[in-house]
Amino acid sequence: MRRLPSWQVSLIPFVVLTLSLVVIIKIFGPDALSGGSQVCLLLASAVTAAISMFAYKNSWEILEFCILDNIRSVGTAILILLLIGAIAGTWMVSGIVPAMICYGMQVIYPAIFLAAACAICALVSLMTGSSWTTIATIGVALIGIGVALGFEPGWTAGAIVSGAYFGDKVSPLSDTTVLASSSSGTPLFTHIRYMMITTIPSLTIAMVIFLVASLMHKQVGASQTAEFAGALKSVFNITPWLLIVPALTGVLIVKKVPAVLTLFCAAVMAAVTGLVAQPQAVWAVANPGLPFTDFSGLSFWDACKGITVTFYGSTAIQTGNEAIDALISTRGMTGMLNTIFLIVCSVTFGGVLAGSGMLKSLTELFARLAHRAFTLVGATVGTGLVCNIVTGDQYISILLTSSLYKKLYERKGYENRLLSRSVEDSATVTSVLIPWNSCGMTQATVLKVPTLEYLPYSFFNILSPFMSVLVAAVGYRIFRSKKAKAEEVD
Q: What is the CA radius of gyration of the chain?
């Protein structure tokens, strides 16, 4: 039996990671995810390996085996992330997402503006799988509409953030959702269905608050939604037939078709739809730099090039409208490479922690403190929040929290989906509420509303961690694993 590092020694890599991230985020700001954060993870991994090999005489072969085993475990997640990038491009260029926005905007009235803004962002984020894209596009438009109607920017931004992060959490296209499910060993759609137990009540409460606030608001100004919808219709052929693709995707999800096959089919269906319904958009993607108005027909070669680019590359189109250009612009599979880079570095860090015995040492510390589902979930939620505060990044927080508690949940006999939900209810949704976190900095910059100004009104994000702990305290649908049930019978 090898000697385990003490929990105090096991915290050294986290201290190194935290301090290096503080420096990197100070230097690079929101661009830290482009490589700086990954370097910090590799540095922390190197420190962990050095302590393990020189102070505790562990061999490099053990550490390397654990690293490779961790990387192997996220192989499917990496493939899913690439397919998510493909869907981001194909669903945009085919007009599916613009159609969802146009039809969603028809429900915006001043008396229900905040609730409608939350609902529209939730829907767009659900369909795109990205809270960042939703906030940077339709969110920016809604901020302008809110100002015209006389709503405080903090209220509008809070509604936008609440809706965007709800959609992000329950979307099978979301990288954070995939990350939380894969890092905890939970099937993607099992994870999403289980999250509904906490996310639906949290969103319902938030929507009620937004609706009451809208009804109490004195209506001033005129809505800009017709203008924005008109700009979309000038670029895309908006028709209800476009909604067939998301409907069929929903059928595949309900039928529990594997996530990889579902996402692949969704991307292919959208690509075909784009050729039929939006030839002008496909042509524009195939001819970057040319004005959108130059379109005179789609040749075979332009069709092949345009569809291929929507899968892997930039879908930027010059329409002459900055808001529409920002909405349409996606990066396809290429846009997922930084996230994949981060995942590989994070699981490397997790692998070294496991191989060195430091992860086990910390897990045993938590095991002594957590005795019931309530305390275990509470500790998980608290750790996710603390990781967001000290690391400044939601991806790292998701991976670290999952790594710290995965073995403990198994030892305590709880299903992995309880862990994945607890991680999402904390690490994912609270990241945007922290001013120095990459999410908080980005959204404050995009919306031009300081983080601390929209924080009090981001009701879904605030309620989610409390709802997770409350459901665990009540014991509603907290299941024991099959292994634990078998042991109890024996």
A: 23
Is 341 among the domain residues?
yes
| One domain for residues 477 and 360 | yes
Same domain? 157 vs 290: yes
Q: Which residues of 123-139 are buried (b: 16+ CB within 10 A; e: fewer)?
A: bbbbbbbbbbbbbbbbb
Together in a domain, 310 and 217:
yes
- What distance in Å separates the CA atoms of residue 279 and residue 270, rounded to the nearest whole number? 13
Same domain, 471 and 483: yes
- Tell me the whole-structure pTM to 2 decimals: 0.70
**Cα–Cα dist 453/335, whole Å:** 30
Q: What is the mean pLDDT of residues 106-132?
A: 83
The number of angstroms, rounded, from the C-alpha of 28 to the middle of its chain's C-alpha atoms is 21
Let me know: does 344 contact 39? Beta carbons within 8 Å. Answer: no
- The pLDDT > 70 percentage for the chain reads 90
Question: pLDDT for 376-421, tens place per residue?
Answer: 888 888 888 877 776 667 777 888 788 778 888 888 788 888 898 9
Number of structural domains found in the chain: 2
Q: Are residues 61 and 82 in the same domain?
A: no
